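G., the chain you wanted modeled:
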Amino acid sequence: MSTTPEPRVSVVVPVYNPGPHIDELIASLLRQTMAPGDFEVIFVDDGSTDGTGARLDDLASRHAHIDVVHIPNSGWPSRPRNIGIERARGVYVQFADNDDWFGDEALQRLYAYATAQDADVVVGRMAGIRRGVPRELFRRNHPEATLANAPLIDSLTPHKMFRREFLLEQNLRFPEGDRRLEDHVFVTAAYFAARRISVLSDYVCYYHVGRPDASNAGFRTFDPAGYFGNLQEALDIVDRNTEPGALRDRLHRRWLRVEIVDRLSGRRFLDAPEEWRADFFREARAVAAARFAPGVAAGLPASRRAAADLLIQGRMAEALEWAGWESRIRARATAQVSPSLEITATGGLYAGASPLAFTHRSDGTDALTTPVTGIRPDALDVTQRLGVARMDILARRRSGGEEFFLPVTTSAERAPVKGRDTADRFRQVHTAVARLAPDTLNAGRNAGTWDLKVRITSCGWQRDADLPLSLSIPTDGAPPAVVDRVRRDRLTRAKRSARRRSRLLLTRVRNLLQS
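Predicted structure as tokens:
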């Protein structure tokens, strides 16, 4: 263990057979703008058999702020993380997985924000590479976030910065053993115990990576009965810290939506083994009946409420039909850019080749239109949700995956649906206008090419559609430029066509002269 003075931050990394997937993490730790003397890295090798342990020992021999602990294989990240907590000396503890990595300024920015806010927990902005990360949570910095005023419950992975004294005082540890959702139990308990939680959103601190072969621990198959037993431990923490009512329902809704309903949706459910689908459906239905009050499912948007309704009714066949229909929901959009870098995008959701349709009912309410039968009418109501549906414009850096919302003004209007017997049906057309402000991207650390896209949020769906626009920000301080890829490709094709015509004309002239 290092004998240097107490560091500001301890980075704890559980390690098990990562192979080359750990390279990016190591490189990012060595690139940190925080001085090596101000942070330590504790790799806890959980019995790796691929040579990683020896590689980390060599790394530690060359860097005084890196420490390696070797333990017999425990089978899951909890024990390595707990050992890291015990060995940590930093004011704050930051957890990372061995196949993720950090932004270069992450530790410096997170620590500065933590101390400025005197926070027990700091949630840094994440970028997802081949896996999802919270989106709405990172719309803005939130110095005093709570479970009541911010969507913190959407972020239950452990990749956060925790005050070490807070962890020790509250005796917060990860449940050990071969189990799932240990991070949900740990983070949920921390959220309730924390005096202050702060969210840092203006810089991407953490890159959460799904391996191309989906071999991360979180992507493995699982036993539904054990999984839902672990899930209920997190629900128990919520129940001990809340009264029955709106807040508890909203927090519970996260588990119903993400861990149950989302797993019944789209290709994810359709492609699962048939026996596993039946087991999952049975266990999920039992948990939904036993643990969730009526207000939990009622507060879901229509796309999720419909699937939950089929689950509660026990309609497995219709749930499969719903998953197939929903898997075809897509966003489509077009865009134009002005000389002043103002972007105007227009788009909507589609079910296959047809616009997603809604029905205006005789009682004055609006309902989602779907060919799937067996869903109760109230589960398809979208009257309120259509009023808050929106389309955002985002920029995503091509090289790193960082993603930021652009400031936009949005609107939506109803348009008729073409076809027979559609007098009471309509679709929703969205418009978003944004002015590009490159300095707002990643706190000004923004050189490179940023691809633009829209994100339509409607009735529980979030669907992205790429725009044919890219923002190029040079490293030399030159003005940024917007590339219209469609116009560029059209001009390129036109030039190629002109060259072909010129060559053909020259050939004809030569032939005439020679004849």
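The CA atoms of residues 209 and 328 lie 26 Å apart.

Shout if anything looks off.
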